[in-house]
């Protein structure tokens, strides 16, 4: 039989084993929690970085749509369809706004003029029907959406057209303007590189 000293030694060893096991379990829990916290923080940082980069792209399109749609000359162009004016004042500035295409409509959503830097005749047509556009602008002077075209996915920003004095767009629109950015592989690769992520657009079959 075990004597008193042996029992005490066994009790101490058992207690040490329990303490060591508990400590090891706690250490694993802390390590796991720290790792999970690190991953969550890193993912949040990537998400915020991606959102900021996308916003930079969107901001240029938005400035293009907003600034060019409150302009007497744009209102005049919708009536005159002056090809020289639109070339000198719109086509020549697509690169400055990182835009690849645009569509100008009259007040009834008929395409007055469109152009793109991709050499595509297909996307000269309106990306949406007149009814779809009417719905988009039914309760707002602006719109923003992605759409799939024959050239891939485009980010679109739009605004109703008004005279220069109607900067708050209180009066009825005299036309509409859509501007687009082709989210091609080069754009996605740039976004992936800068945000340290892998970004892809899912292209479902139509």
Structural descriptors:
single chain, 206 residues, alpha+beta, 5-stranded antiparallel sheet, 5 helices, 49% helix
Task: Write a compact overview of the structure shown.
The chain is α+β, with helices and mostly antiparallel strands. Helices cover 49% and strands 18% of the residues.
Structure description:
The protein has 206 residues and is of the alpha+beta class. Helices cover 49% and strands 18% of the residues. The protein has a five-stranded antiparallel sheet. Strand 1 and strand 2 form a beta hairpin. The N and C termini lie far apart (83 Å).
How would you spell out the order of helices and strands? HHHEEHEEEH
Distance between the termini: 83 Å
Low-confidence stretches: none
Largest sheet: 5 strands, antiparallel
Q: How would you write the strand order of the largest sheet?
A: 2-1-5-4-3
The overall pLDDT average reads: 83
Can you tell me the overall shape? rod-shaped
Helix content: 40-55%
Percentage beta strand: 15-25%
Helical/strand content category: alpha+beta
By DSSP, the count of extended strands is 5
Number of DSSP helices?
5
């Amino acid at each position: 039989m075990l004597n008193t000293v042996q029992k005490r030694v066994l009790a101490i060893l058992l207690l040490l084993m329990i303490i060591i096991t508990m400590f090891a379990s706690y250490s694993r829990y802390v390590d796991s929690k720290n790792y999970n916290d690190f991953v969550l923080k890193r993912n949040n940082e990537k998400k915020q970085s991606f959102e900021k980069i996308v916003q930079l792209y969107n901001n240029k399109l938005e400035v293009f749509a907003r600034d060019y749609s409150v302009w007497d000359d744009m209102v005049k162009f919708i009536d005159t369809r002056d090809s020289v004016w639109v070339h000198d004042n719109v086509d020549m500035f697509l690169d400055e706004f990182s835009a690849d295409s645009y569509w100008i409509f009259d007040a009834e959503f008929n395409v007055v003029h469109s152009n793109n830097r991709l050499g595509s005749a297909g996307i000269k047509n309106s990306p949406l029907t007149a009814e779809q556009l009417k719905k988009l602008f039914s309760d707002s002077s602006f719109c923003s959406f992605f759409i799939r075209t024959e050239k891939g996915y485009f980010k679109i920003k739009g605004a109703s057209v008004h005279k220069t004095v109607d900067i708050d767009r209180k009066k009825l629109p005299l036309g509409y303007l859509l501007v687009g950015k082709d989210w091609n592989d080069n754009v996605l690769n740039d976004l992936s590189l800068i945000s340290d992520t892998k970004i892809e657009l899912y292209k479902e079959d139509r």
